[in-house]
Amino acid sequence: MGKFKIIGFRNFDQFLAKTFLLHGHSILAHSRSDYSRMTREIGVSFFSNLDDLCEQHPKVILLCTSIISTKLVLKSLPLQRLKRSTLFVDVIYVKEFPKSLLLNSLPGEFDIVCTHPMFGPESGHHGWNGLCFVYEKVCLGDEESRVSRRERFLEIFAANGCRMVEMSCVEHDQFTIETQFITHIVGRVLEALKLDSTPINTKRYETLFDLVENTAADSFDLYYGLFMYNKNALEMLERLDLAFEALKTLLFGRLHDVARKQLFGNA
Question: What is the pTM of this model?
Answer without folding.
Answer: 0.88
